Protein backbone atom coordinates (compact mmCIF):
# COMPACT_ATOMS: atom_id res chain seq x y z
CA UNK A 1 0.00 0.00 0.00
CA UNK A 2 2.94 2.34 0.57
CA UNK A 3 4.14 3.13 -1.99
CA UNK A 4 1.27 1.93 -4.24
CA UNK A 5 2.34 -0.14 -7.26
CA UNK A 6 1.71 1.39 -10.68
CA UNK A 7 -1.36 0.57 -12.78
CA UNK A 8 0.92 -1.55 -15.04
CA UNK A 9 1.57 -4.05 -12.21
CA UNK A 10 -2.11 -4.28 -11.37
CA UNK A 11 -2.99 -4.83 -15.02
CA UNK A 12 -0.53 -7.73 -15.20
CA UNK A 13 -2.09 -9.21 -12.08
CA UNK A 14 -5.65 -8.85 -13.46
CA UNK A 15 -4.57 -10.32 -16.83
CA UNK A 16 -3.22 -13.37 -15.00
CA UNK A 17 -6.58 -13.80 -13.23
CA UNK A 18 -8.39 -13.56 -16.60
CA UNK A 19 -6.22 -16.38 -17.99
CA UNK A 20 -7.29 -18.45 -14.97
CA UNK A 21 -10.93 -17.58 -15.86
CA UNK A 22 -11.40 -15.92 -12.47
CA UNK A 23 -13.68 -13.26 -13.94
CA UNK A 24 -15.62 -12.46 -10.75
CA UNK A 25 -12.33 -12.06 -8.86
CA UNK A 26 -11.14 -9.57 -11.50
CA UNK A 27 -14.29 -7.46 -11.06
CA UNK A 28 -13.92 -7.51 -7.27
CA UNK A 29 -10.18 -6.71 -7.31
CA UNK A 30 -10.68 -3.97 -9.87
CA UNK A 31 -13.15 -2.21 -7.56
CA UNK A 32 -10.68 -2.51 -4.64
CA UNK A 33 -7.86 -1.06 -6.78
CA UNK A 34 -10.08 1.84 -7.80
CA UNK A 35 -10.98 2.57 -4.12
CA UNK A 36 -7.31 2.88 -3.10
CA UNK A 37 -6.82 5.60 -5.67
CA UNK A 38 -5.37 3.83 -8.72
CA UNK A 39 -7.00 5.33 -11.82
CA UNK A 40 -8.16 3.23 -14.78
CA UNK A 41 -6.44 3.21 -18.14
CA UNK A 42 -7.52 1.74 -21.49
CA UNK A 43 -5.96 -1.64 -20.67
CA UNK A 44 -7.65 -2.05 -17.28
CA UNK A 45 -11.04 -1.06 -18.75
CA UNK A 46 -10.52 -3.48 -21.65
CA UNK A 47 -9.85 -6.23 -19.09
CA UNK A 48 -13.13 -5.35 -17.34
CA UNK A 49 -15.04 -5.42 -20.65
CA UNK A 50 -13.56 -8.83 -21.44
CA UNK A 51 -14.67 -10.18 -18.03
CA UNK A 52 -18.22 -8.89 -18.38
CA UNK A 53 -18.46 -10.42 -21.86
CA UNK A 54 -17.24 -13.82 -20.62
CA UNK A 55 -19.85 -13.64 -17.85
CA UNK A 56 -22.54 -13.02 -20.53
CA UNK A 57 -23.03 -9.46 -19.26
CA UNK A 58 -22.23 -7.68 -22.51
CA UNK A 59 -24.48 -4.70 -21.63
CA UNK A 60 -22.24 -4.00 -18.61
CA UNK A 61 -19.30 -4.28 -21.00
CA UNK A 62 -20.81 -1.54 -23.16
CA UNK A 63 -21.30 0.62 -20.03
CA UNK A 64 -17.56 0.34 -19.36
CA UNK A 65 -16.94 1.13 -23.05
CA UNK A 66 -19.00 4.33 -22.62
CA UNK A 67 -16.96 5.16 -19.51
CA UNK A 68 -13.78 4.71 -21.53
CA UNK A 69 -14.96 7.19 -24.18
CA UNK A 70 -16.12 9.62 -21.45
CA UNK A 71 -12.62 9.58 -19.92
CA UNK A 72 -11.19 10.41 -23.36
CA UNK A 73 -9.42 7.06 -23.58
CA UNK A 74 -8.90 5.59 -27.04
CA UNK A 75 -10.26 2.01 -27.37
CA UNK A 76 -7.94 -0.56 -28.91
CA UNK A 77 -8.74 -3.35 -31.35
CA UNK A 78 -8.71 -5.69 -28.33
CA UNK A 79 -11.54 -3.63 -26.77
CA UNK A 80 -13.67 -3.96 -29.90
CA UNK A 81 -12.84 -7.68 -30.21
CA UNK A 82 -14.03 -8.38 -26.65
CA UNK A 83 -17.37 -6.63 -27.25
CA UNK A 84 -17.94 -8.30 -30.64
CA UNK A 85 -17.16 -11.69 -29.11
CA UNK A 86 -19.48 -10.91 -26.17
CA UNK A 87 -22.36 -10.03 -28.52
CA UNK A 88 -21.81 -13.27 -30.46
CA UNK A 89 -21.74 -15.29 -27.23
CA UNK A 90 -25.12 -13.78 -26.32
CA UNK A 91 -26.51 -14.67 -29.77
CA UNK A 92 -26.79 -10.98 -30.73
CA UNK A 93 -25.16 -11.52 -34.11
CA UNK A 94 -26.91 -8.58 -35.87
CA UNK A 95 -25.69 -6.18 -33.17
CA UNK A 96 -22.20 -7.68 -33.50
CA UNK A 97 -22.22 -6.96 -37.25
CA UNK A 98 -23.44 -3.39 -36.62
CA UNK A 99 -20.69 -2.84 -34.05
CA UNK A 100 -18.11 -4.33 -36.46
CA UNK A 101 -19.23 -1.83 -39.14
CA UNK A 102 -19.08 0.97 -36.53
CA UNK A 103 -15.53 -0.06 -35.66
CA UNK A 104 -14.46 0.19 -39.31
CA UNK A 105 -16.30 3.52 -39.71
CA UNK A 106 -14.34 4.89 -36.72
CA UNK A 107 -11.15 4.13 -38.62
CA UNK A 108 -10.09 1.08 -36.61
CA UNK A 109 -8.50 -1.78 -38.51
CA UNK A 110 -10.06 -5.16 -37.61
CA UNK A 111 -7.45 -7.84 -36.98
CA UNK A 112 -7.67 -11.60 -37.52
CA UNK A 113 -9.30 -12.06 -34.08
CA UNK A 114 -12.05 -9.57 -34.94
CA UNK A 115 -12.83 -11.39 -38.18
CA UNK A 116 -12.62 -14.80 -36.52
CA UNK A 117 -15.11 -13.77 -33.81
CA UNK A 118 -17.65 -12.35 -36.24
CA UNK A 119 -17.23 -15.23 -38.72
CA UNK A 120 -17.64 -17.79 -35.92
CA UNK A 121 -20.79 -15.99 -34.74
CA UNK A 122 -22.27 -15.95 -38.25
CA UNK A 123 -21.54 -19.65 -38.76
CA UNK A 124 -23.23 -20.60 -35.48
CA UNK A 125 -26.43 -18.83 -36.53
CA UNK A 126 -26.71 -20.26 -40.04
CA UNK A 127 -25.14 -17.34 -41.93
CA UNK A 128 -22.34 -19.42 -43.41
CA UNK A 129 -22.57 -17.78 -46.86
CA UNK A 130 -22.17 -14.31 -45.31
CA UNK A 131 -19.20 -15.64 -43.30
CA UNK A 132 -17.58 -16.98 -46.50
CA UNK A 133 -18.07 -13.53 -48.09
CA UNK A 134 -16.39 -11.90 -45.09
CA UNK A 135 -13.53 -14.41 -45.33
CA UNK A 136 -12.95 -13.41 -48.97
CA UNK A 137 -13.02 -9.71 -48.01
CA UNK A 138 -10.34 -10.13 -45.33
CA UNK A 139 -7.47 -10.20 -47.82
CA UNK A 140 -8.77 -7.00 -49.50
CA UNK A 141 -8.48 -5.27 -46.10
CA UNK A 142 -4.92 -6.55 -45.66
CA UNK A 143 -5.81 -9.14 -43.03
CA UNK A 144 -4.89 -12.78 -43.61
CA UNK A 145 -7.18 -15.44 -42.09
CA UNK A 146 -5.67 -17.99 -39.74
CA UNK A 147 -6.55 -21.58 -38.85
CA UNK A 148 -9.23 -20.42 -36.35
CA UNK A 149 -11.03 -18.41 -39.06
CA UNK A 150 -11.07 -21.34 -41.48
CA UNK A 151 -12.09 -23.83 -38.78
CA UNK A 152 -15.29 -21.91 -38.01
CA UNK A 153 -16.46 -22.08 -41.64
CA UNK A 154 -15.27 -25.66 -42.27
CA UNK A 155 -17.12 -26.85 -39.16
CA UNK A 156 -20.31 -25.01 -40.22
CA UNK A 157 -20.16 -26.40 -43.77
CA UNK A 158 -19.68 -29.93 -42.43
CA UNK A 159 -22.64 -29.56 -40.08
CA UNK A 160 -24.73 -28.40 -43.07
CA UNK A 161 -23.47 -31.53 -44.91
CA UNK A 162 -21.70 -29.33 -47.50
CA UNK A 163 -18.57 -31.42 -47.12
CA UNK A 164 -17.42 -30.82 -50.72
CA UNK A 165 -17.24 -27.07 -50.08
CA UNK A 166 -15.51 -27.71 -46.74
CA UNK A 167 -12.84 -29.83 -48.46
CA UNK A 168 -12.32 -27.09 -51.07
CA UNK A 169 -11.80 -24.57 -48.29
CA UNK A 170 -9.43 -27.04 -46.61
CA UNK A 171 -7.32 -27.18 -49.82
CA UNK A 172 -7.40 -23.38 -50.13
CA UNK A 173 -6.22 -23.10 -46.55
CA UNK A 174 -3.25 -25.41 -47.16
CA UNK A 175 -2.34 -23.66 -50.42
CA UNK A 176 -2.00 -20.45 -48.41
CA UNK A 177 0.47 -22.18 -46.12
CA UNK A 178 -1.93 -22.28 -43.16
CA UNK A 179 -1.41 -25.56 -41.32
CA UNK A 180 -4.61 -27.35 -40.27
CA UNK A 181 -4.88 -28.31 -36.61
CA UNK A 182 -6.78 -30.98 -34.68
CA UNK A 183 -10.01 -28.92 -34.83
CA UNK A 184 -9.82 -28.68 -38.65
CA UNK A 185 -9.39 -32.41 -39.11
CA UNK A 186 -12.02 -33.26 -36.48
CA UNK A 187 -14.59 -31.04 -38.22
CA UNK A 188 -13.88 -32.69 -41.58
CA UNK A 189 -13.91 -36.21 -40.11
CA UNK A 190 -17.28 -35.45 -38.48
CA UNK A 191 -18.61 -34.10 -41.78
CA UNK A 192 -17.57 -37.01 -43.99
CA UNK A 193 -18.85 -39.47 -41.35
CA UNK A 194 -22.30 -37.86 -41.45
CA UNK A 195 -22.38 -38.47 -45.21
CA UNK A 196 -21.40 -42.10 -44.72
CA UNK A 197 -17.93 -41.65 -46.26
CA UNK A 198 -16.16 -43.68 -43.58
CA UNK A 199 -13.14 -44.61 -45.74
CA UNK A 200 -12.46 -40.93 -46.39
CA UNK A 201 -12.74 -40.30 -42.65
CA UNK A 202 -10.13 -43.00 -41.99
CA UNK A 203 -7.88 -41.48 -44.69
CA UNK A 204 -8.16 -38.06 -43.01
CA UNK A 205 -7.27 -39.63 -39.67
CA UNK A 206 -4.18 -41.28 -41.20
CA UNK A 207 -3.17 -38.01 -42.87
CA UNK A 208 -3.57 -36.24 -39.55
CA UNK A 209 -1.24 -38.72 -37.83
CA UNK A 210 1.32 -38.41 -40.67
CA UNK A 211 1.31 -34.63 -40.13
CA UNK A 212 2.18 -35.26 -36.44
CA UNK A 213 -1.17 -33.79 -35.38
CA UNK A 214 -2.39 -35.91 -32.50
CA UNK A 215 -6.12 -36.65 -32.73
CA UNK A 216 -7.85 -35.84 -29.46
CA UNK A 217 -10.54 -37.78 -27.59
CA UNK A 218 -13.35 -36.08 -29.53
CA UNK A 219 -11.76 -36.92 -32.92
CA UNK A 220 -11.40 -40.59 -32.03
CA UNK A 221 -14.87 -40.76 -30.48
CA UNK A 222 -16.54 -39.24 -33.56
CA UNK A 223 -14.81 -41.71 -35.90
CA UNK A 224 -15.40 -44.77 -33.68
CA UNK A 225 -19.10 -43.93 -33.31
CA UNK A 226 -19.53 -43.43 -37.07
CA UNK A 227 -17.71 -46.67 -37.93
CA UNK A 228 -19.81 -48.63 -35.42
CA UNK A 229 -23.08 -47.21 -36.75
CA UNK A 230 -22.03 -48.20 -40.27
CA UNK A 231 -21.25 -51.77 -39.20
CA UNK A 232 -17.47 -51.31 -39.61
CA UNK A 233 -16.79 -52.65 -36.11
CA UNK A 234 -13.38 -54.18 -36.93
CA UNK A 235 -12.19 -50.77 -38.19
CA UNK A 236 -13.66 -49.14 -35.07
CA UNK A 237 -11.75 -51.59 -32.85
CA UNK A 238 -8.52 -50.84 -34.74
CA UNK A 239 -9.11 -47.09 -34.29
CA UNK A 240 -9.77 -47.70 -30.59
CA UNK A 241 -6.43 -49.60 -30.31
CA UNK A 242 -4.58 -46.73 -32.04
CA UNK A 243 -6.21 -44.34 -29.59
CA UNK A 244 -4.94 -46.33 -26.58
CA UNK A 245 -1.45 -46.70 -28.12
CA UNK A 246 -1.20 -42.94 -28.59
CA UNK A 247 -2.00 -42.32 -24.93
CA UNK A 248 -5.46 -40.85 -25.47
CA UNK A 249 -7.69 -42.08 -22.64
CA UNK A 250 -11.17 -43.21 -23.77
CA UNK A 251 -14.21 -42.02 -21.86
CA UNK A 252 -17.70 -43.39 -21.27
CA UNK A 253 -18.89 -42.09 -24.69
CA UNK A 254 -16.09 -43.90 -26.58
CA UNK A 255 -16.72 -47.17 -24.78
CA UNK A 256 -20.50 -46.88 -25.18
CA UNK A 257 -20.16 -46.35 -28.95
CA UNK A 258 -17.92 -49.42 -29.31
CA UNK A 259 -20.15 -51.56 -27.06
CA UNK A 260 -23.14 -50.49 -29.19
CA UNK A 261 -21.28 -51.47 -32.38
CA UNK A 262 -20.37 -54.88 -30.97
CA UNK A 263 -23.98 -55.48 -29.88
CA UNK A 264 -25.33 -54.51 -33.32
CA UNK A 265 -22.86 -56.90 -35.01
CA UNK A 266 -23.98 -59.71 -32.64
CA UNK A 267 -20.70 -59.80 -30.69
CA UNK A 268 -22.32 -59.70 -27.28
CA UNK A 269 -19.52 -61.54 -25.41
CA UNK A 270 -16.98 -59.03 -26.74
CA UNK A 271 -19.30 -56.21 -25.64
CA UNK A 272 -19.43 -57.59 -22.09
CA UNK A 273 -15.63 -58.00 -22.07
CA UNK A 274 -15.33 -54.33 -23.08
CA UNK A 275 -17.70 -53.36 -20.27
CA UNK A 276 -15.42 -55.15 -17.77
CA UNK A 277 -12.37 -53.41 -19.27
CA UNK A 278 -14.18 -50.09 -18.95
CA UNK A 279 -14.92 -50.67 -15.25
CA UNK A 280 -11.30 -51.82 -14.78
CA UNK A 281 -10.16 -48.41 -16.04
CA UNK A 282 -12.38 -46.74 -13.40
CA UNK A 283 -14.72 -45.42 -16.09
CA UNK A 284 -18.27 -45.79 -14.78
CA UNK A 285 -20.87 -46.96 -17.30
CA UNK A 286 -23.77 -44.51 -17.57
CA UNK A 287 -27.45 -45.12 -18.27
CA UNK A 288 -26.76 -45.03 -22.03
CA UNK A 289 -24.13 -47.82 -21.74
CA UNK A 290 -26.43 -50.03 -19.68
CA UNK A 291 -29.37 -49.35 -22.03
CA UNK A 292 -27.35 -50.66 -24.99
CA UNK A 293 -26.76 -53.99 -23.22
CA UNK A 294 -30.32 -54.26 -21.88
CA UNK A 295 -31.81 -53.53 -25.31
CA UNK A 296 -29.59 -56.18 -26.96
CA UNK A 297 -30.49 -58.81 -24.35
CA UNK A 298 -34.21 -58.07 -24.67
CA UNK A 299 -34.10 -58.31 -28.46
CA UNK A 300 -32.43 -61.72 -28.07
CA UNK A 301 -35.22 -62.79 -25.71
CA UNK A 302 -32.82 -63.01 -22.75
CA UNK A 303 -35.09 -60.99 -20.49
CA UNK A 304 -33.90 -62.55 -17.20
CA UNK A 305 -30.31 -61.52 -18.09
CA UNK A 306 -31.58 -58.01 -18.82
CA UNK A 307 -33.26 -57.93 -15.39
CA UNK A 308 -29.91 -58.87 -13.80
CA UNK A 309 -28.18 -56.02 -15.66
CA UNK A 310 -30.82 -53.60 -14.33
CA UNK A 311 -30.10 -54.83 -10.78
CA UNK A 312 -26.34 -54.20 -11.31
CA UNK A 313 -27.18 -50.83 -12.79
CA UNK A 314 -29.19 -49.79 -9.69
CA UNK A 315 -26.48 -51.16 -7.34
CA UNK A 316 -23.95 -48.89 -9.09
CA UNK A 317 -26.19 -45.87 -8.47
CA UNK A 318 -27.30 -45.49 -12.10
CA UNK A 319 -31.04 -44.75 -12.28
CA UNK A 320 -32.91 -46.60 -15.08
CA UNK A 321 -34.84 -44.27 -17.38
CA UNK A 322 -37.81 -44.61 -19.74
CA UNK A 323 -35.56 -46.14 -22.44
CA UNK A 324 -34.45 -48.87 -20.01
CA UNK A 325 -38.01 -49.78 -19.09
CA UNK A 326 -39.23 -49.59 -22.70
CA UNK A 327 -36.53 -52.09 -23.73
CA UNK A 328 -37.50 -54.44 -20.89
CA UNK A 329 -41.20 -54.13 -21.74
CA UNK A 330 -40.41 -54.88 -25.40
CA UNK A 331 -38.47 -57.96 -24.25
CA UNK A 332 -41.45 -59.19 -22.20
CA UNK A 333 -43.73 -58.73 -25.22
CA UNK A 334 -41.28 -60.63 -27.45
CA UNK A 335 -41.29 -63.54 -24.98
CA UNK A 336 -45.13 -63.41 -24.82
CA UNK A 337 -44.92 -62.42 -21.13
CA UNK A 338 -47.67 -59.87 -21.67
CA UNK A 339 -48.75 -59.78 -18.00
CA UNK A 340 -45.24 -58.71 -16.94
CA UNK A 341 -45.19 -56.12 -19.71
CA UNK A 342 -48.53 -54.69 -18.52
CA UNK A 343 -47.39 -54.64 -14.90
CA UNK A 344 -44.24 -52.72 -15.86
CA UNK A 345 -46.28 -50.39 -18.07
CA UNK A 346 -48.71 -49.61 -15.22
CA UNK A 347 -45.75 -48.84 -12.94
CA UNK A 348 -44.35 -46.45 -15.58
CA UNK A 349 -47.74 -44.71 -15.91
CA UNK A 350 -47.96 -44.37 -12.10
CA UNK A 351 -44.46 -42.81 -12.05
CA UNK A 352 -45.44 -40.60 -15.01
CA UNK A 353 -42.53 -41.70 -17.20
CA UNK A 354 -44.47 -43.66 -19.86
CA UNK A 355 -44.08 -42.04 -23.29
CA UNK A 356 -45.54 -42.63 -26.75
CA UNK A 357 -43.06 -45.47 -27.36
CA UNK A 358 -44.19 -47.22 -24.15
CA UNK A 359 -47.79 -47.23 -25.38
CA UNK A 360 -46.76 -48.35 -28.89
CA UNK A 361 -44.72 -51.27 -27.46
CA UNK A 362 -47.63 -52.52 -25.35
CA UNK A 363 -50.10 -52.11 -28.23
CA UNK A 364 -47.73 -54.17 -30.41
CA UNK A 365 -47.44 -56.79 -27.66
CA UNK A 366 -51.22 -57.10 -27.32
CA UNK A 367 -51.63 -57.35 -31.10
CA UNK A 368 -49.07 -60.18 -31.32
CA UNK A 369 -50.87 -62.02 -28.51
CA UNK A 370 -54.17 -61.50 -30.44
CA UNK A 371 -55.52 -59.41 -27.53
CA UNK A 372 -56.85 -56.79 -29.92
CA UNK A 373 -59.44 -55.24 -27.57
CA UNK A 374 -56.75 -54.61 -24.95
CA UNK A 375 -54.61 -52.99 -27.66
CA UNK A 376 -57.52 -50.72 -28.65
CA UNK A 377 -58.09 -49.78 -24.98
CA UNK A 378 -54.44 -48.73 -24.60
CA UNK A 379 -54.74 -46.72 -27.83
CA UNK A 380 -57.78 -44.87 -26.44
CA UNK A 381 -56.00 -44.33 -23.10
CA UNK A 382 -53.20 -42.53 -24.96
CA UNK A 383 -55.58 -39.76 -26.02
CA UNK A 384 -56.90 -39.40 -22.48
CA UNK A 385 -53.30 -38.90 -21.30
CA UNK A 386 -52.76 -36.18 -23.91
CA UNK A 387 -50.37 -38.29 -25.99
CA UNK A 388 -50.80 -38.16 -29.77
CA UNK A 389 -50.33 -41.57 -31.45
CA UNK A 390 -47.70 -41.44 -34.16
CA UNK A 391 -47.51 -43.30 -37.50
CA UNK A 392 -45.86 -46.30 -35.80
CA UNK A 393 -48.69 -46.60 -33.23
CA UNK A 394 -51.36 -46.36 -35.93
CA UNK A 395 -49.53 -48.83 -38.20
CA UNK A 396 -49.20 -51.37 -35.37
CA UNK A 397 -52.89 -51.23 -34.46
CA UNK A 398 -54.06 -51.21 -38.10
CA UNK A 399 -52.02 -54.36 -38.76
CA UNK A 400 -53.48 -55.97 -35.62
CA UNK A 401 -57.03 -55.16 -36.78
CA UNK A 402 -56.47 -56.77 -40.17
CA UNK A 403 -54.97 -59.87 -38.54
CA UNK A 404 -57.95 -60.04 -36.17
CA UNK A 405 -60.34 -59.93 -39.13
CA UNK A 406 -61.54 -56.37 -38.49
CA UNK A 407 -60.81 -54.60 -41.79
CA UNK A 408 -63.54 -52.00 -41.18
CA UNK A 409 -61.87 -50.84 -37.92
CA UNK A 410 -58.47 -50.84 -39.68
CA UNK A 411 -59.82 -48.51 -42.39
CA UNK A 412 -61.44 -46.24 -39.80
CA UNK A 413 -58.10 -45.94 -37.98
CA UNK A 414 -56.34 -45.13 -41.26
CA UNK A 415 -58.88 -42.37 -42.05
CA UNK A 416 -58.49 -41.09 -38.47
CA UNK A 417 -54.77 -40.36 -38.98
CA UNK A 418 -55.08 -37.17 -41.06
CA UNK A 419 -57.49 -35.30 -38.75
CA UNK A 420 -55.12 -36.10 -35.84
CA UNK A 421 -52.13 -34.58 -37.64
CA UNK A 422 -50.44 -37.86 -38.57
CA UNK A 423 -49.40 -38.58 -42.15
CA UNK A 424 -49.30 -42.27 -43.15
CA UNK A 425 -45.77 -43.40 -44.03
CA UNK A 426 -44.59 -46.15 -46.38
CA UNK A 427 -45.11 -48.79 -43.64
CA UNK A 428 -48.71 -47.69 -43.00
CA UNK A 429 -49.54 -47.80 -46.72
CA UNK A 430 -47.86 -51.23 -47.03
CA UNK A 431 -49.99 -52.62 -44.18
CA UNK A 432 -53.21 -51.11 -45.57
CA UNK A 433 -52.66 -52.29 -49.16
CA UNK A 434 -51.61 -55.78 -48.03
CA UNK A 435 -54.60 -56.01 -45.67
CA UNK A 436 -57.08 -54.88 -48.36
CA UNK A 437 -55.61 -57.31 -50.90
CA UNK A 438 -55.91 -60.20 -48.46
CA UNK A 439 -59.56 -59.21 -47.85
CA UNK A 440 -60.19 -59.20 -51.60
CA UNK A 441 -60.72 -55.42 -51.75
CA UNK A 442 -58.40 -54.98 -54.74
CA UNK A 443 -60.13 -51.83 -56.06
CA UNK A 444 -59.70 -50.08 -52.70
CA UNK A 445 -56.06 -51.20 -52.59
CA UNK A 446 -55.39 -49.69 -56.05
CA UNK A 447 -57.19 -46.47 -55.03
CA UNK A 448 -54.90 -46.31 -52.00
CA UNK A 449 -51.85 -46.88 -54.23
CA UNK A 450 -52.83 -43.84 -56.32
CA UNK A 451 -53.35 -41.76 -53.15
CA UNK A 452 -49.93 -42.84 -51.97
CA UNK A 453 -48.28 -41.78 -55.25
CA UNK A 454 -50.03 -38.39 -55.00
CA UNK A 455 -48.48 -37.92 -51.56
CA UNK A 456 -45.08 -38.41 -53.27
CA UNK A 457 -44.37 -41.70 -51.50
CA UNK A 458 -42.73 -44.26 -53.78
CA UNK A 459 -44.28 -47.77 -53.60
CA UNK A 460 -41.81 -50.45 -52.50
CA UNK A 461 -41.40 -54.15 -53.32
CA UNK A 462 -43.73 -55.22 -50.48
CA UNK A 463 -46.59 -53.10 -51.86
CA UNK A 464 -46.15 -54.37 -55.44
CA UNK A 465 -45.92 -57.97 -54.20
CA UNK A 466 -49.17 -57.55 -52.23
CA UNK A 467 -50.94 -56.09 -55.28
CA UNK A 468 -49.65 -58.82 -57.61
CA UNK A 469 -50.69 -61.50 -55.11
CA UNK A 470 -54.10 -59.85 -54.69
CA UNK A 471 -54.59 -59.59 -58.48
CA UNK A 472 -53.68 -63.26 -58.96
CA UNK A 473 -56.20 -64.30 -56.26
CA UNK A 474 -58.86 -62.10 -57.87
CA UNK A 475 -58.23 -63.70 -61.30
CA UNK A 476 -58.46 -67.18 -59.74
CA UNK A 477 -61.75 -66.30 -58.05
CA UNK A 478 -63.36 -64.87 -61.21
CA UNK A 479 -61.86 -67.44 -63.59
CA UNK A 480 -64.44 -69.64 -65.40
CA UNK A 481 -61.91 -72.53 -65.53
Report the principal-axis shape.
elongated
| Overall number of strands | 0
Residue-averaged pLDDT:
88
Beta-strand portion reads under 5%
Please give the radius of gyration in angstroms: 31 Å
Name the poorly predicted regions: 477-481
User: Strand pairing plus helix content: what structural class?
Assistant: mainly alpha
- Span between termini: 116 Å
Order of helices and strands: HHHHHHHHHHHHHHHHHHHHHHHHHHH
Largest sheet composition: none
- Supply the number of helical segments: 27
**Roughly what percent helix?**
over 70%
Task: Give the gist of this structure.
The chain has helices spanning 7-19, 23-35, 42-54, 58-70, 77-89, 93-105, 112-124, 128-140, 147-159, 163-175, 182-194, 198-210, 217-229, 233-245, 252-264, 268-280, 287-299, 303-315, 322-334, 338-350, 356-368, 372-384, 391-403, 407-417, 426-438, 442-454, 461-478. It is mainly α and 481 residues long. Helix 8 (128-140) runs antiparallel to helix 9 (147-159).
Keywords:
mainly alpha, 481 residues, elongated
What does this structure look like?
The chain is an all-alpha fold and 481 residues long. Helices cover 74% and strands 0% of the residues. The protein contains 27 helices and no strands. The longest helix has 18 residues, at 461-478. It is elongated and about 100 Å long. The termini are far apart. 40% of the residues are buried. Mean pLDDT is 88; it is low at 477-481.
